[in-house]
Amino acid sequence: MHFTLQKSNIAKQSSIKITGSKSESNRLLLLQALYPEIELNNVSNSDDSNLMTNALKSSSKVVDIHHAGTAMRFLTAYFSIQEGRETVLTGSKRMKERPIKILVEALKELGAEISYVENDGFPPIKIIGKKLTKNKVSLNANVSSQYISALLLIASKLENGIELTLEGEITSVPYIKMTLSLLDEIGVESTFKENTITVKPNSNKLEPKTLTVESDWSSASYYFSIAALSPVGTEITLSSYKEHSLQGDSALVSIYKHFGVSAQFHENSVTLTKENTTLTPLNLDLKNAPDIAQTIAVTCFALSIPCDLTGLHTLKIKETDRLVALKTEIEKLGGSVKITDKSLHLAASTAIKSMVSIATYNDHRMAMAFAPLALKTSIVIEDAMVVSKSYPTFWDDLKSIGFQITK
Ligand SMILES: O=C(O)C1=C[C@@H](OP(=O)(O)O)[C@@H](O)[C@H](O)C1
Ligand SMILES: C=C(OP(=O)(O)O)C(=O)O
């Protein structure tokens, strides 16, 4: 279903409650399956987290996780240690193009039994659950941190824990640190020194504990963009957020100062305020926060600021090739974009074309990143319900702050 967003003005003051982080949720759901004494609050209502919950409960042989990358990678590790169980883990057409070989090889090095059902190196995969007895493994850390988090999440259930050597430049580091912090919160010990991570085994029950998932910072990015495109004095309050987050995308707070957006934290929320600022070109390395690249590129386009975004080598294996998708859609709107396989250069724009129809390529972040442009001009977002992958109430929330949206 396509949505038309008429050129809109938003309320001077508004507030939004955003669902729990899908990254934290999908880690904690897996840990809860391993350690049922954990209780969770504010779990994400995203498709990806619902798919994770259902997959962990499912006893069927074929488990389909659709577009959910974290679920695919984390469950590959999880089913590898479900002794005696045979599982075929599959996903959407796009999931079958997202590489998994590095993780599969690492698990096999630990003793896992995994084979490819269709194409070598890609889902679907057949996993025969086993007791994994080895504990030392090394893997290339430059393709996806999700492979590393997957191994870390099951590590404490291995007889000897894990000693992981990370080769090459480590990408998306905050997501690895998030995994280790959550292990620490539930009482599993680990170390991360230089390029080696160790996790201690723990076959015992843990102290019963309730953990509250912080709301999703990647979802918050769209409100940083909205604030940046709004008149000076506009305030948007988002909950539930804290100043010291486990989520690397909380780097938004410092990044969006560049666009005149300040963030004040309260007990359980953060207020974004648009302030007067002089706009200058932006140079940014996003290897630690790849999911906010689309939001930032569109903010720059809307504000006519040239930008150079680097560290984007993981974008081409996400829900779509996000570099190509960004270039194609920004150029439809009148912008000029150059891409390599790891960077994006946006020239200063002159005008934004009106009523352009933005294709979303089964990528929630394409839909959400382009939506703030409605503060500048009318725009159509194709297949708008794609947002449910991470943020099902996105359009209702935009309406509640003043966006005029029709089907
Ligand atoms: O571990 C996680 O929760 C995630 C890690 C990142 O992936 P990569 O490590 O593949 O960049 C990120 O893009 C994804 O949305 C969520
Ligand atoms: C890349 C993403 O998700 P995943 O890799 O888990 O599919 C995302 O949410 O932007």
Automatic annotation (TrEMBL):
- InterPro entries linked to this entry: Enolpyruvate_Tfrase_dom, Enolpyruvate_Tfrase_sf, EPSP_synthase, EPSP_synthase_CS, RNA3'P_cycl/enolpyr_Trfase_a/b
Q: What keywords were assigned to this record?
A: Amino-acid biosynthesis, Aromatic amino acid biosynthesis, Cytoplasm, Transferase
Residues annotated as binding 3-phosphoshikimate are K22, S23, R27, S144, S145, Q146, S172, D291, K318
Name one cellular component (GO) term: cytoplasm
- Catalytic residues in the record: D291 (proton acceptor)
Biological processes, Gene Ontology terms: amino acid biosynthetic process; aromatic amino acid family biosynthetic process; chorismate biosynthetic process
Q: Locate the Enolpyruvate transferase domain: which residues?
A: 57-398
Q: Which residues bind phosphoenolpyruvate?
A: K22, G69, R98, Q146, R322, R365, K389
What highest taxon heads this organism's lineage?
Bacteria
| Primary localization | cytoplasm
Enzyme Commission (EC) number: 2.5.1.19
Give a GO molecular function annotation for the protein.
3-phosphoshikimate 1-carboxyvinyltransferase activity
Q: In which pathway does it act?
A: Metabolic intermediate biosynthesis; chorismate biosynthesis; chorismate from D-erythrose 4-phosphate and phosphoenolpyruvate: step 6/7
Q: How does it assemble?
A: Monomer.
**Family according to the record:** Belongs to the EPSP synthase family.
Q: What does this protein do?
A: Catalyzes the transfer of the enolpyruvyl moiety of phosphoenolpyruvate (PEP) to the 5-hydroxyl of shikimate-3-phosphate (S3P) to produce enolpyruvyl shikimate-3-phosphate and inorganic phosphate.
Q: What is this protein called?
A: 3-phosphoshikimate 1-carboxyvinyltransferase
Quote the gene name from the UniProt entry: aroA
